[in-house]
Design a protein that fits this description.
single chain, 117 residues, mainly beta, 4-stranded antiparallel beta sheet, 51% strand
Length: 117
């Protein structure tokens, strides 16, 4: 038997938090040959500031007639200074996943790495 190739999509995103939640990452898994599962790693690069993040999943196209309603994959959660968190909740398949970030009291540099499969 031959090996089965698993298709993946991954990327690295860098940015800086603001005083209001902003969309830091939107992963659209429809039509890219993957199963719609994601693993997301978020790093707070600040040495002295806390940041917050939340992750929402969409079961259908979030811009289409059937989508638009987010399902909280991860409610608002803090990330301490110089800390990395990994979201490995892959039980549910999503058409799109959105990571939003906000600072606590001052801007923080962040890095997001993700992989879909």
């Amino acid at each position: 038997m031959g090996e089965v190739a698993i298709q993946t999509k991954s990327s690295l995103i860098k940015g800086t938090t603001t005083a209001a939640y902003v969309e830091a990452l939107r992963v659209d898994t429809r039509g890219c040959g993957v199963q719609g599962k994601t693993v997301i790693q978020i790093t707070n690069k600040s040495e002295d500031q806390t940041m917050y993040y939340k992750i929402d999943g969409y079961l259908a196209d979030p811009t289409g007639a059937l989508g638009g309603t987010a399902i909280a994959k991860k409610a608002e959660t803090s990330i301490a200074a110089a800390t990395t968190v990994v979201n490995t909740d892959v039980a549910q398949v999503y058409a799109a996943v959105v990571v939003s970030v906000v600072n606590n009291s001052a801007a923080c540099a962040y890095q997001i790495e993700y992989c879909t499969y």
